[in-house]
Each structure stands twice: as C-alpha cells, then as structure tokens.
Amino acid sequence: MLEEKTYTLPQLAQELGGAADRQSVLKKLQRRGIAYTAEGRGAKLKITIQSIPDRFPTYCIRELQFAPNSDFEKVRNLFYYCFNDEEFFTYPDERKAAALEECGHHVSRQSIAVYLQKLYDLGLWSKSSQEFVYYFAHGGVYREADKQEYLEAWHDYWGWKEEFGGELKIVCPMILEKYDGFPRKQAVPEANAMEQEAIQTLIALTNESYERAYG
To answer: In which domain of life is the source organism classified (predicted)?
Structure first.
C-alpha cells in the first residue's frame, strides 16, 4: 500500500503497478492527485510521496464496483462500524441505521443494504445459511425477537390471512397490534477466509479515511 515516504523508481513502480519508467510513474501520481517531489536521475532517482488524497473512494470504485457518484462518506461510516464492531455487523439493517443515527451518521436502511451487497457480490463476505437474527420492525421502530416468536408471528399471519379471505388490510394491523412490527430475519455475515488480503486492505483504507475525517 502506498505510503508517505521516499521510494526508488522500481519500488514505486511496484506499488503503482506497471513498468519502472519515470514518465509513466509520475503520470500515475499526477492522475491520482498525489503530491510528490523527485530528486536525482537514473538509478539515483528518489521520489518522495508528500501527501495522498483519501484512498477509500478510489478503492471502492476500482475494486468494489461502486459508482463514482456514490456518497462515500456514508459508505465509509457504515463500513467503519461494521468492520470494527463485530456485533454491529450482525445487526439487522434497521438497527444499523438507528445506531448510526445515534452517532450522527445518517444512512438509510435501503442504502445500507445496497452498500453491503457489494461485499457479498464480490465474495468478500457471505450470508450465513444457518445463523440468523430475528426481529420485528415497522416505521423505523425495531425490536429483537427469537426464532420462536418469529415463527409464531408468521403462523398468525397465515392463519389470519386464511380466516379473513386474504384481506391484508385486516391482517397486517392485527400483526402490528400483537407484535409491534412485522416479523423479519437477516442472515449473519461471514468473512471469506480466502479473501483475507482484500478484506484487510479494505479495513485499513476504511479506518484511515474515518480517522482523517474524525481523528
């Protein structure tokens, strides 16, 4: 990972990817908005990286396939809490949104689902097929549940739906009244052991960006 220090031309070319050609390497630095100084010629050339812009957005665009116009502040804030608080990562998206709001970071439930899906699509994390979080949610209100209550709510739903001829305008208010929300479950995320290098790079860039903003 590129750092703010002095490199030889071959060292810097290895970091950036490509041939150890002075003109090519310097153009790459310029395109990325990296401030540098260059001293010496030929084998004595030394390039000192003075400052590096926030690398998190670039990584997200190139490696995670985010659109360039994504709100990377929201993405970063979500990822920061997911990667540094294992329990937070297992929260249902509704609870993640509420917890972030309490920290002064507004990220909607819908955006959270979209951002995390990038990690699943690329195989960095996967959704457990056996471990789930059960809960009830409605109108931004969230409460935890266990599997038994979750199944009971669905049992009531299907029973009342049959009893009232499929009239959801009758059934849904009954569910809300009894359970204070609709029954939902969300799979617990699992890191892919084969992608640890990419995962650790993403975590490092996320933390670096967050600490620049709030440190």
So the answer is: Bacteria
